[in-house]
Amino acid sequence: MSFHRIRRAASIPALLTALLLALPAHATSLLRDADMEYALRQMAAPVLGAAGLNPDRVKVLVVNDSSLNAFVVSNDAIFIHYGLINRLGSAAMLQGIIAHEAAHIANGHIARRMGNMANARTIAGLGLALAVAAAASGSSQAAGGIALGTASSAQRAFLGHTRAEEASADQSGVRYMKSAGASPDGLLETLKIFQGQEALSAGRQDPYLRSHPLSRDRVRAVQGYVASYGTLPADPAAEYWFARLKGKLTAYTRAPSWTLRRLGDSGYKDVALLREAVAQHRNSRTRNALSAIDRAIAARPKDPFLQDQKGQILLETRNFSAAVNAYGRGAQMAPNNPLILSGYGRALLANGQVQKALPVLEKSRRQDFRDGSMLRDLATAYAKTGQTGMAALVTAERYALSGRFKDAGIHAKRATGLLATGSGPWQRAQDVLIASQRAAKRK
Predict the structure, then answer these.
(1) What is the value of pTM for the model shown?
(2) What pairing do the DSSP bridges indicate for beta strands 59-63 and 70-72?
């Protein structure tokens, strides 16, 4: 699957939250990629488990923003700005961020806020949890969005934590890290990035500091927690996946020339080759990109995410048959990864293999219905096979997830007239219709 960016979009639950809190509907975008999300899961899973959270339910997602921030808006997702990841120097520092945000969930800070929100039940539209504000828009360049405005006192009140909550999350986070085998000093090192900013005016502070108040007392307290729990040696597996995450992230968010000059800083040969492939592809040097990714695959032949990257390069350079083969190999290795399946289905569709693409895309949707480009491809596949009711339903869901509720309602109404009354798809169309009607009433 492509490493997606989006400019403006909104998930259904996030947009409803924006409506509920009177927040501006300016979306913050997400960056989604199978390789990147797997790396995040490898680092997050032990920490989330130590916090008593299910790693299969709590996603760690990357926000397309170069500023330094991380936040939670519900019990199902942790959001981290790519600018913060790029600033971190180790897996333990990233795990410290995850542990701290997980503590806000585990300690009930988010649940209390949600419980106090007026008419919070309206957020349940389409049966989505507010947390998964990572719903994707329908553009081929889109992956998901969060409709939380950028300049609102209501937003600051919703996202901001009290000093008591921060102290509680720090102490719990350090404990989670120690239990997970991650060195607790990672959290302390991350906090040191923000030291000194509390003296700046609010407009000059990083967003993280505005929602997570920092003080000398807080830093001293964390130092005490770390001294009490002790430090641990770096985890080689976590450090590898951190290098891979940061390597790919910088390859896509920095200029290709910057990446190519720093391949020697990658830490691992296969990570350097992956970064080289991305940079060369972004420079439209397809032969060089394929050469680099093939050498990475030779070093890690059982890695499905390298096949996914090769498939992306081939698909975006219109070599559809070869893209099908690459994505197909990735899907064989990771048969339940929704983003790889989405890329595979897209390649099959582009190659004219519609009947084969349809079940692949449906399987991807069942695993993760928030990928808007997958929904677009799935609707196309249904339309090309004559299943107009299903095509209308999936189109309605895609529009709803991108915040286009009026268009969603039109297609949902059409779907209800074409689908068998009472069936599962018919009920899905009814859910979209209800969500669109609620959105219309709030305008």
Answers:
(1) 0.82
(2) unpaired
